[in-house]
Design goal:
It is a single chain. This protein is α/β, with parallel strands linked by helices. It has 14 helices and 15 strands. It has two domains: 248 residues, 3-Layer(aba) Sandwich (Rossmann fold); 60 residues, N2,N2-dimethylguanosine tRNA methyltransferase, C-terminal domain (Phenylalanyl-tRNA Synthetase, Chain B, domain 1), CATH 3.30.56.70. The chain is 39% helix and 23% strand. Helix 1 packs across helix 10 and helix 5 crosses helix 8. The longest helix has 17 residues. The radius of gyration is 21 Å and the shape is globular.
């Protein structure tokens, strides 16, 4: 017997369950509570496996009017039904359905129309993005929750696969995890645009081997155009740490310091979080008795702070100090020097050794050298 959040489940050996994703399910359930613009949620839990995610969403949130758990494996579907009954969610419930079917078939032609779709596949979510967006197109406002567990592709170790799967060139450096999330969101936005759908991230998160983003999806050509206009490119100099941002691909090939620059894109250059969503998630976390409640609170506090910094990406203090053969300064000493120059700054959940700031690379280097 496994207990997670408000849910209890039992497993068979062949049914997939990843205990390392409990934190992701905790945080995602908090985000579901904040998804109120679409009215009561008709929620699809795609690729349900044991059913743990969908069952938790339904038990822990009052804004779900109907839950459909989709799984191709017949034995997994039987396990989901048993787990539903274990949580007093038996077959007599008209607001629950277990669908033994291919997720794309359900989304394209299954007759169900959802306003919240959960995509949590093994590996890349790309094969399910278009069908999910087409299904959400029936709603004025909907939400798409996507998990990607292919870090080697999105973080730059397999650049050819990233260009093939996501249509973007990745960047293998110290801020590759934020780049990965922005490539994922950019891909979704580019699939959504021809459908006259806009995407707006309300929550994004990177941890261990996965990337999570929850997007608000709205209909309309004008918002879709605004959304697709937030795609762009970045350049990075591995010598002087300068980051360049452009909304066209004509980036400089050589940095002013004389070094060859690296680049990535197209990727999402807009915001990654919605402030109201973060506030609701923090309030909900205080009400719930999650096992990792304190850790979640710390994560949400850091994300709330970094959401206030008006620029993407960050600086890894350890990497920079090591390259300069300088002593590693404390976070407080660097921020006090940046504060004196009027810059904004925060920690970032992407990297515990990094600082997110609107300061230039030159000023961050100067703050490190003063140690």
């Amino acid at each position: 017997m496994i207990e997670e959040g408000l849910a209890k489940i039992k497993l068979q050996d062949e049914i997939f369950y990843n205990p390392h994703m409990e934190l992701c399910r905790d945080i995602s359930s908090l985000a579901v509570a904040a998804c109120n613009d679409a009215g009561d949620l008709v929620l699809c839990d795609g690729m349900s496996a044991s059913g743990i995610r969908g069952i938790r969403y339904k038990l822990e949130n009052r804004n779900i009017s109907r839950l459909v758990l989709v799984e191709m494996d017949a034995s997994a579907c039987q396990m989901i039904r048993e787990n539903l009954e274990l949580n007093h969610m038996g077959p007599e419930r008209l607001d629950l359905e277990v669908a033994n079917d291919d997720l794309n078939h359900i989304l394209y032609t299954g007759g169900n129309k959802f306003n919240f779709i959960e995509l949590d596949p093994f590996g890349s979510p790309v094969p399910f993005i278009r069908s999910a967006l087409l299904n959400l197109r029936a709603s004025r406002v909907g939400y798409l929750s996507v998990t990607a567990t292919d870090p080697a592709v999105l973080c730059g170790a397999q650049p050819k696969a990233c260009r093939l799967n996501y249509g973007s060139t990745p960047l293998d450096n110290y801020f590759c995890h934020e780049t990965a999330l922005r490539i994922l969101i950019s891909h979704i936005a580019r699939v959504a645009s021809p459908l006259e759908l806009s995407v707006a991230p309300v929550f994004s998160f990177s941890k261990r081997h996965y990337f999570k983003t929850i997007l608000k999806i709205e209909k309309g050509a004008k918002p879709a155009l605004q959304s697709i206009s937030q795609q762009g490119f970045i350049s990075f100099c591995p010598h002087c740490f300068k980051v360049g941002i452009a909304y066209d691909p004509f980036l400089e090939k050589v940095c002013k310091c004389g070094s060859k620059v690296q680049w990535a894109g197209p990727l999402w250059l807009g915001r990654l979080w919605d402030k109201a969503t973060l506030k609701t998630m923090s309030e909900e976390n205080q009400k719930r008795e999650y096992k990792r409640k304190t850790e979640i609170n710390n994560i949400l506090n850091i994300i709330t702070a970094e959401s206030e910094i008006p620029v993407p990406f960050y600086f890894d203090i350890h990497k920079m100090a090591d390259k300069m053969k300088s002593q590693i300064p404390s976070f407080d000493s660097i921020t006090s020097r940046l504060d004196a120059k009027g810059y904004k700054f925060s920690k970032t959940h992407f990297n515990q050794h990094a600082i997110k700031t609107d300061a230039t690379a030159e000023d961050v280097i100067s703050a490190i050298k003063q140690e």
